[in-house]
Design goal:
Helices cover about 30% and strands about 25% of the residues. α12 links the parallel β22 and β23. The chain has 2 domains: about 200 residues, UDP-n-acetylglucosamine1-carboxyvinyl-transferase, Chain; about 210 residues, Alpha-beta prism (UDP-n-acetylglucosamine1-carboxyvinyl-transferase, Chain). Strands 22-23-1-24 form a 4-stranded mixed beta sheet. A 4-stranded mixed beta sheet has the order 2-15-17-16, covered by helices on one side. A 4-stranded mixed beta sheet has the order 4-5-3-14. The N and C termini lie close together (about 5 Å). The protein is α/β, with parallel strands linked by helices. α1 runs parallel beside α2. The chain binds uridine-diphosphate-N-acetylglucosamine. The site of uridine-diphosphate-N-acetylglucosamine has 20 residues, from α1, α5 and α6.
């Protein structure tokens, strides 16, 4: 199993190209199940989660072709991929595949809309909490589907003439369930209104792509989304938006080490609240023609309290990274996690580097320390693992992060991007 060795203490200076967003690429790829034409996606990041979803889609009958060689865009590895699902050959998404990646459960929406049925394994628990699927099931029921749960699988069936437009108010905001409702309602008979919908930029990106495929969706990016059903969707070409979590992660890395970095190909609107928080912490962030410039020179890191919230609030996917930054602040800060239970597994690992963090329920109290010291640490989930990298970049001496397969799920060429800015990060294969 690969590990990552970091020699800390260097400032970051240079350019980091930002990849296409994993969390947009996954639902966009799943949308290819909705049409027998070809959906072409540009700027798809080269990540373990994307490869896993390619396998899952292949199982349902999606032919995939990747443009001969990697696209040369801002020197990023992101690729253009063509997806064609002439016929759905299998409406079952088996446990062996779904249990590896929760987002693969989302195929339930397109399969149900196009084929009238879907047999999809429940995703099961995951490291950051129980993550149930009740909102998906209730939402699809509002479109006329019937649901049975048997043997760990959801068996969803549409009415004889197909799904029907309906009205559904989410009792709790869910990004995934909003994606699924938009996909399913696009092919329903009649109009669907979703209230308390997720407003994340990835939801807007999916709506844009579905509209390019012939769907009639309005309101994406607000809490109320209206979808007028159409009888079929056609092919389209769509470019995946930049990864805001990767953007925020590198911005925090620069805030942590000090330095001056251009995050290329990304935009401030994708991060909203999180950038303001980083500014309060002492980073200077400005928009440039090519992206975002993040600078921290001389001044220290200020303590700032954050509470994770659905977009446009501070994202839970940046919580661990922000906590790493706060370990070096000049005072006491608090980080409250409201989206997922059990998303504090990085706390024990950060403590191994000398961080002073105490937990009380869903709130962490972080007392900034003058220095962190390198140590062996273990990655526990995707975002937690990168928080350890950020801490390692600022720690004295060597930090060895094990279980880096978590990182490979969501960060494209992490070592290379950091090293080009002066970091010393090396992958070690055992
Ligand atoms: C997506 C992102 C993930 C991010 C999360 C929150 C992808 C691939 N993943 O995950 O990186 O951390 O949004 O921004 O885009 N919930 C229920 N019932 C449901 C569905 C969700 O109770 O049926 C709960 C979850 O347990 C969680 C909260 O709702 O507490 C938000 O989850 P959700 O927005 O659905 O997260 P994902 O879409 O899985």
């Amino acid at each position: 199993m690969d590990r990552i060795r970091i020699r800390g203490g260097n400032k970051l200076n240079g350019i980091i190209p930002i990849s296409g967003a994993k969390n947009a690429a996954l639902p966009l790829m799943i949308a290819s199940l909705l049409t027998s034409d070809t959906l072409t996606l540009e700027n798809v990041p080269h990540l373990a989660d994307v490869e896993q979803l390619l396998r899952i889609l292949g199982n349902h009958g999606v032919d995939v072709s990747v443009n001969g060689r990697r696209e040369r865009q801002s020197e990023s590895y992101s690729r253009t991929i063509h997806f064609t699902c002439r016929t759905v050959v299998d409406t079952t998404a088996p446990y062996e595949l779904v249990s590896k990646m929760r987002a693969s459960f989302w195929v339930i929406g397109p399969l149900l809309a196009r084929e009238g049925r879907a047999h999809v394994s429940l995703p099961g628990g995951c490291a950051i909490g129980t993550r149930p699927v009740d909102l998906f099931l209730e939402g699809l029921q509002a479109l006329g589907a019937t649901m049975e749960i048997e043997g760990g699988y959801v068996k969803a069936t549409a009415p004889k003439g197909g799904l029907v437009g309906g009205h559904y108010t989410f009792p709790k905001i869910s990004v995934g369930a909003t994606h699924v409702m938009m996909m399913a309602a696009s092919l329903a008979n009649g109009t669907t209104v979703i209230e308390n919908a997720a407003r994340e930029p990835e939801v807007v990106d999916l709506a844009k792509c579905l509209n390019a495929m012939g769907a009639r969706i309005s309101g994406a990016g607000t809490s109320t989304i209206t979808i007028e059903g159409v009888t079929s969707l056609h092919g389209a070409r769509h470019r995946v938006l930049p990864d805001r979590i990767e953007t925020g992660t590198y911005a925090m890395a620069v805030a942590m080490t000090g330095g001056d970095v251009i995050l290329e190909g990304t935009g401030a609107e994708l991060l909203d609240n999180a950038l303001d928080t980083l500014r309060l912490a002492g980073a200077e962030i400005t928009e440039t023609e090519s992206g975002l410039r993040v600078v921290r020179n001389g001044n220290g890191i200020q303590p700032v309290d954050v509470v994770t919230e659905p977009f446009p609030g501070f994202p839970t996917d940046l919580q661990a990274q922000f906590m790493a930054l706060m370990t070096r602040s000049s005072g006491v800060s608090h980080v409250t996690e409201t989206i997922f239970e059990n998303r504090f597994m990085h706390v024990q690992e950060l403590a191994r580097l000398g961080a002073r963090i105490s937990l009380s329920g869903q709130m962490a109290r972080i007392e900034g320390v003058d220095r962190l010291k390198g140590a062996p640490v273990m990655a526990t989930d995707l975002r937690a693992s990168v928080s350890l990298v950020i801490a390692g970049l600022a720690a004295e001496g060597e930090t060895m992060v094990s279980r880096v397969y978590h990182l490979d799920r969501g960060f494209e060429r992490l070592e290379e991007k950091l090293n080009r800015c002066g970091a010393e990060v090396e992958r070690v294969s055992d």
